[in-house]
Amino acid sequence: MMALLYVVFIMLFISCEAKLQLRKDINITALFAFGDSIVDQGNNNNLITHAKCNFLPYGKDFMGGNKPTGRFSNARTPADMLVEDFGIKKLMPAYLDSNLKVEDLKTGVSFASGASGFDLLTAIVASALPLSVQLALFQQYIWKMNGFIGEEATKNIVKKSLYIVVAGSDDLCNTYFMLKFPRKIQYNVDSYTNLMVDGASNFINDLYNMGARRIWIFGLPPIGCLPSQILRGGGAPKICVDEYNQAAQIVNTKLSNKIYSLNKKLPQIELLYINIYDPLLDIIVNHDKYGFEDALSACCQGGNVYLLCDNITRICENDANYLFWDSYHLTERGYRVLLDQISN
């Protein structure tokens, strides 16, 4: 069980590096997610977009098997694991799930949308929900809860909840390096990563102004090691693309510095940058140590242009041996190992 259970972290910053100190006097009773497909629990299901997965083989191992829900995984996502690790509930639902009950809303939902990013263009091109729309849905959530449980109780939920933000990979993978026009013509890597971090900063400020105080921002992974980017990078098979990884590291450095600045600027905020780049790269490089036979190929070999799984996809025999489920997302076991590494 992760060290996150029943505790929350406060941040002490030294040279922009976050040190974690456990506080046992605070319990997290609600968790909300924003961002992209890593924590999209099914919000894209009814959108007209290629970024959706409410069909098999997605969900083939979910809750007993063969239950596609719109989660971009063979089973659960990091959002599901976090709410369970905090003892909140078994699964995190999507806010746009028509079956939600008030009790589901009280303990947190995901507003995330697959293929969204800090750059507005990223969501527009993919027909996903931009972060601005995700915030609008959160405002709608607040209005709903005011009616269900009253303004004071709602304000208490909003203030004491934990908010996780997972975004940025699609900006680089899809908008900058793949789409190229217009962003790669308009910006070099330095200026485009500035645009991304400005987008992240604006989002944090908006979320703060809506009452959020405990916010975790997840940094970018080594995107050059994603199976999709290895293929599109045009290099040797199973060799990470250095150019893409370097861009991710630039974003992470700037994002970490911005978070350090916002922690000093915004009263009462508990803002934390989560480094996933180094732990995931260690799992990839030393995959044998973590029990993975393959860390640079997808278990689910999508044959379409988007490199996602489809109904003619070939699936590996044992997904527990694979770090990656499809060409962008980890297997459930991959996410579990990564979260355990982050919390240690």
UniProtKB/TrEMBL annotation:
<dbReference type="InterPro" id="IPR035669">
    <property type="entry name" value="SGNH_plant_lipase-like"/>
</dbReference>
<comment type="similarity">
    <text>Belongs to the 'GDSL' lipolytic enzyme family.</text>
</comment>
<keyword id="KW-0732">Signal</keyword>
<dbReference type="InterPro" id="IPR036514">
    <property type="entry name" value="SGNH_hydro_sf"/>
</dbReference>
<dbReference type="InterPro" id="IPR050592">
    <property type="entry name" value="GDSL_lipolytic_enzyme"/>
</dbReference>
<protein>
    <recommendedName>
        <fullName>Zinc finger protein</fullName>
    </recommendedName>
</protein>
<dbReference type="Pfam" id="PF00657">
    <property type="entry name" value="Lipase_GDSL"/>
</dbReference>
<feature type="signal peptide">
    <location>
        <begin position="1"/>
        <end position="18"/>
    </location>
</feature>
<dbReference type="InterPro" id="IPR001087">
    <property type="entry name" value="GDSL"/>
</dbReference>
